[in-house]
Amino acid sequence: MPDSPLGRTLVIANPTAHSGRGEDGARFAQEFLQSYASATRGFEVVRTQGPADATRIARGARGFDTILALGGDGVIHEVVCGLMALPREARPQLGVIPLGSGNDYARTLGMARNDVEAALAQLVRGRACHVEVGRVNGTPFMQTLSFGLDAAIALDTTDRRATGTSQEGEALFVTSALRILSNAREGFPVRASFDREKTQDLSTIIFAVQVGPSYGGGFKICPNADPTDGLLDVCYNVKLPALPRLMALLGLARLGRHTGSSVVRLRRCRSLTLDFDREPPCQADGEKVCGTHFDVSVVPDALDVIFPS
């Protein structure tokens, strides 16, 4: 495979991903790379042992051209955090072997999902592109940062996956959304400033900051988000809709058709500052974030990421 972009490669695999299928995926990746020696200039496969382990491994990676993250969006997030701790010139390029429930970053990149063989075939024929990474209070995120009820839904799906639910992807997101939205009564007051513009007073129930288009296993909350444009895409509510309309918007968001509603507004920015009256539910790539003050920014061209050709 003379055109493989991988070079010397480190595979960071979460063996518990996708209800334990990550271990099978790690074994297959090792066998694949052994069988196709020309795909790399040598490789290692390392399995994570627990939370934040992928961050530690990626941060300590030396002498590698590529890090492949095998697992769901959680392990990809950890790998990105580790890479972003390195100087830009020392960061290996990133490839993803998506094996998870939501797989939203894989959707952004156009990678085969939950099919290790197909994803590896894409990677060895792929091409690296510069992509942006978001930051919230100094912590990187590669796909999604959200506040309010949509964050509560995302955190609920994370909790349910941890307790062994059989649901995944869109079905998991929808059932969590129905339960949480049915109890929604009010928004979270916040003062928001985009790109240091005049502060706006909002009562937010939906506030999503996106690098890529989707969250929740394919809901196209910011359908035109482009991870290579150096901008964050934001979708937020400007009105507090009644519950039936809120449920209808959820259905429209599945296909990105909510964007014409007078309830929501979409815009792009390089930075924003949010100050909440009380601590809202907040998540970055499925990881809980605490606080009432949030400084959010984009790091353009932060990583080289392999896309399918």
TrEMBL record:
Organism superkingdom: Bacteria
Name used for this protein in its record: Diacylglycerol kinase family protein
Keywords: ATP-binding, Kinase, Lipid biosynthesis, Lipid metabolism, Nucleotide-binding, Phospholipid biosynthesis, Phospholipid metabolism, Transferase
SMART domains: DAGKc
Keyword Transmembrane: no
GO MF term set: kinase activity
All residue ranges annotated as the DAGKc domain in the record: 4-140
Family annotation (NCBIfam families): YegS/Rv2252/BmrU family lipid kinase
InterPro entries on file: ATP-NAD_kinase_N, Diacylglycerol/lipid_kinase, Diacylglycerol_kinase_cat_dom, Lipid_Phosphate_FormReg, NAD/diacylglycerol_kinase_sf, YegS/DAGK_C
Cofactor: Mg(2+)
The keyword Transferase appears for this protein: yes
Family per similarity comment: Belongs to the diacylglycerol/lipid kinase family.
